[in-house]
Structures are given as structure tokens and as C-alpha cells.
Design goal:
Layout: E1 27-28, E2 32-35, E3 46-49, E4 60-62, E5 75-83, E6 92-97, E7 111-116, E8 119-124, E9 127-131, E10 141-148, E11 151-156, E12 159-160, E13 165-166, E14 178-180, E15 194-203, E16 241-245
Antiparallel strand pairs: 1-4, 2-3, 3-15, 4-14, 5-10, 5-15, 6-7, 6-14, 7-8, 8-9, 10-11, 11-12, 11-13, 15-16
Length: about 250
């Protein structure tokens, strides 16, 4: 008996597809609002932080996680910010895990960044490294902190700030909260004032390896190498991005 050939259609099985990126649980303080302001010509939104006027509610936080316990490995944290006051409050935190103790024991910020007046301060296991003349009020600036093979480089608008930082800090704090726009204790003198958008945290990968072209549109969890046709930007594959704040 004649038996016709069967035709099979191939379907993509979702079980074999790479996972889509999902942010960890976020808590957004009541003093943080989403506003229609953006560093990109095509428009977009940012988070507005009111700072010291309502510091206890001016933050974005997510619970402690191994995602920002970098160990001694590579990582990248980048963002765009538009600060409207550089001097008040004095110690504006962009992001932190931990708090600064003004008396012994020594400072306990495991990882974080402050922009204090004209200084950019990078924290790793309580040790602060400062670069001067870093910021400008009322201007959108792209910042990046990149560690590759025990060397950390700080970038402002794609250009390195100062010399390389020898950085073998073993960042293992997976317990304390990751806070954007303030310190863990929501201190009035550490509250960010202005707008922030496109904060991306990448674990296990140094995204920028030298002077690079600043992104001109919203960041994504995955990206090709040198997406703007420039240089010194490596590809971001699935699973490396752990936090992406794009309102």
C-alpha cells in the first residue's frame, strides 16, 4: 500500500531558547519619579531623584544578591546622569552596597560610586579612589566603571579619567541591599540630586576596553561588539547583565 511521505515542520522549543532578561525585584522610593528627559536625541525617560529634600524616600533598591558580589572578577557598571546640584548634598551616591562609617571600623562600602562636588569617587571594599574635575551640573554625562583582570578604569563620556587603578578587591558582599541614588541608610548628605537613566550592571565582563563611542540610544541586556561602529566595546552575551534601569 502506498504511504505518502510525512512532512515535518520544525518549531523552536522555548526550553532551548536563551532566557530573556528580567530585572531583580526593585523598590522605588516615593520621592523618585519618572520624567520625560533623556540624553538621547530620540527622547526617552529618566528617574528623577529629589535628593536631600526627601532623602529617606529618594532611592531605588534591590535586595542583596550574588549578582553584585563580583569577587575578584571583571565587571562593568555604567549609567547616564544629569545632576542639578553638585555641592548640596555633599556626598551624592550614584550606587552603593554598604555604608560609610565615619569612625572605626573602617568604611564598609563593598562597591559603589559617589560624585562629590567635582570629584568622582570609586569604592571597593571600603577603599576609595578619587578622580578630580569629574562632573558638570545640568549636563548629561555617561559614566562607566570597568574592571578587567585586576585593573579598574573610570570613564567619563567614553574617555578614561586619570590613571589605571590596581584593583584586586575581593567583593563578596551578597547580603546587603544594592541602592541607587543614596547610601544604604538613606542619608540626607548622600542623596543624589537630578536625573539618572540606563544604569547597566554587567558581571563577569569588562564591556569597554579603551576610549569608546558613547551610546546614543537606550542600553540593552545583550549587545554586539562596537554597536556604533567605533572600537573598544565587546559583545555582551546572554546572562552577563544583572541589572538594567531603563524607565
Amino acid at each position: 500500500m502506498y504511504s505518502p511521505k510525512r512532512r515535518f515542520r520544525l518549531f523552536r522549543n522555548p526550553a532551548f531558547l536563551p532566557p530573556s532578561f528580567v530585572n531583580p525585584t526593585l523598590t522605588i522610593g516615593s520621592a523618585v519619579t519618572t520624567v520625560a528627559r533623556s540624553p538621547f536625541a530620540g527622547g526617552g525617560n529618566s528617574y528623577n531623584f529629589t535628593g536631600a529634600t526627601n532623602s529617606t524616600n529618594s532611592y531605588i533598591s534591590t535586595p542583596g544578591s550574588d549578582d553584585w558580589a563580583f569577587g575578584t572578577g571583571d565587571f562593568t557598571v555604567e549609567w547616564f546622569s544629569y545632576q542639578t546640584n553638585l555641592n548640596n548634598p555633599q556626598f551624592q551616591r550614584v550606587y552603593t552596597v554598604g555604608d560609610y562609617n565615619f569612625s572605626p571600623p573602617p568604611p564598609s562600602i563593598s562597591t559603589g560610586v559617589s560624585i562629590e562636588a567635582g570629584a568622582f569617587v570609586y569604592w571597593a571594599n571600603g577603599v576609595a579612589t578619587t578622580r578630580s574635575s569629574a562632573s558638570t551640573a545640568n549636563v548629561w554625562i555617561h559614566w562607566a566603571v570597568v574592571r578587567i583582570s585586576g585593573v579598574t578604569r573610570l570613564y567619563r563620556n567614553g574617555t578614561q579619567l586619570g590613571a589605571n587603578i590596581t584593583d584586586t578587591a575581593d567583593i563578596t558582599d551578597a547580603t546587603r541591599t544594592f541602592v541607587v541614588g543614596n547610601t544604604n541608610t538613606f542619608a540626607s548628605n548622600a542623596a543624589l540630586v537630578g536625573d539618572l537613566t540606563n544604569l547597566r550592571l554587567v558581571k563577569g565582563l569588562g564591556v569597554y576596553t579603551g576610549t569608546f563611542t558613547v551610546p546614543t540610544s537606550s542600553l540593552s541586556a545583550t549587545a554586539s561588539a562596537n554597536p556604533l561602529g567605533g572600537s573598544s566595546t565587546v559583545a555582551i552575551g546572554e546572562g552577563f547583565t544583572k541589572l538594567l534601569l531603563v524607565p
